[in-house]
Design goal:
377 residues, three-stranded antiparallel beta sheet, 22% strand, nine-stranded mixed beta sheet, 42% helix, alpha/beta
């Protein structure tokens, strides 16, 4: 299995918390689509032996593109790569873009999964985050989307300043009311170069509290598991047969090709990333070149990545794989470093698989960093 990710670097407006690469100017949108098309074509030899099972339009906001542009890029992937008979093709979308006509056309051109950026069903939360849609649009788009799509994921953000436990429960209940089979949910985080960070520094917004986020996380896990969702990755919950194949591929170490400015690629040996600058990206593709950087991953890099991704998922970290693929030194190190977390009941071992306990899940990223190998190469 392998996947292709296509980054659409445009948004109508900047959300206060976002530090992804995007532009709010659509002036170069047509040029960008042509550049994406060229990158799709010139990189086909990298995947000559791969079968593409997922195509993912991320961003930015892919739903700002026209139906013609999306269909054009999908057709180019099909023309230049070996694509499986029934690939998962996901489009990230904002509620205000999802008119009924647009949804109908998306369903006709091969999009079979939607990832909708709801974030909250409450007006004050949406305004605090500077989202482009309002509460009514959030609900209306789900009413329409569920008429034409079965495989839908929505995003929710918790730990928002002023969000009570009760309000957070209401958010989850509203989402469940639409029968959505997949939910991705994240704590509101403050990234350095964002408007949110500046608003906090100037005292206009209070800083999110870790204890509130942890309480919201526990509520989320409890409510979704009671409603038949499987907590298959730290921030992702899906009904059976509705896990994201694209994201699961990342966590399981599958190969993927990242198309577009700032997009990352992985071939099992090295990782590369395209320039995070629209003008430079367009110029280089205009010259039939790609402006990117490549890092060859050391054994330690690969070990650390496996620890991070493994602990975040229901598949955990295989002690047998550590021993076989990385050797005794890494295996002994992992056993030694994990012991304190086993003693504190934050980790447990089952069938030679290391996993976080329910108590340890919220702390997974911090635990993983303590298990990283930092000396060996």
């Amino acid at each position: 299995m392998s996947g292709i990710y296509i980054h659409i670097p445009f948004c109508k407006q900047a959300c206060h918390y976002c530090d992804f690469h995007f532009s709010t100017s659509m002036k170069k949108a047509a040029d960008m689509v042509l550049a994406l098309a060229k990158e799709i074509q010139i990189r086909k030899n990298e995947f000559v032996n791969e079968v593409v099972e997922t195509i993912y339009f991320g961003g930015g906001t892919p739903s700002v593109l026209t139906i013609y542009d999306i269909r054009y890029l999908i057709d180019l992937v099909r023309k230049n790569y070996k694509v499986s008979e029934n690939p998962e093709i996901t489009l990230e979308a904002n509620p205000d873009d999802l008119s009924e006509d647009y949804l109908i056309e998306l369903s006709k051109i091969g999009i079979n999964r939607l990832s909708i950026g709801i974030q909250s069903f409450f007006e004050d939360d949406l305004q605090l985050m500077n989202r482009a849609h309002n509460s009514a649009e959030a609900k209306k788009c789900l009413e329409l989307a569920t008429k034409y799509f079965d495989n839908i994921s929505l995003d929710l953000i918790y730990g928002i300043p002023g969000m009570t436990d009760q309000k957070w429960k209401q958010n989850i209940e509203i989402a469940l009311g639409f029968g959505i089979p997949h939910i991705s949910s994240y704590a509101l985080t403050v990234e350095p170069k964002t408007a949110l960070n500046k608003l906090i520094q100037t005292g206009k917004i209070t800083k999110p509290k870790d204890e509130v986020a942890e309480a919201h996380f526990q509520i989320l896990v409890e409510m979704l598991e009671k409603n038949g969702f499987i907590h298959y990755e730290l921030s992702n919950f899906g009904k059976e047969n509705y896990f994201s194949n694209n994201n699961s591929g990342y966590w399981l170490g599958k190969k993927y090709l990242g198309i577009g400015p700032s997009a990352h690629s992985y071939d099992g040996i090295s990782r590369s990333w395209n320039v995070s600058n629209n003008a430079i990206y367009l110029k280089s593709l205009g010259e039939n070149k790609l402006s990117n950087e490549i890092e060859i991953l050391s054994k330690t890099d690969r070990y650390n990545e496996y620890i991070m991704t493994g602990l975040r998922t229901i598949w955990g970290v295989s002690l047998g794989r550590i021993e076989q693929e990385f050797g005794n030194e890494y295996f002994d190190y992992l056993q030694k470093q994990s012991q304190k977390f086993l003693n504190d009941e934050l980790l447990f071992i089952e069938n030679k698989i290391l996993k976080p306990t329910p108590k340890g899940k919220f702390l997974t990223d911090g635990i993983a960093s303590d298990l990283f190998m930092i000396n060996l190469k």
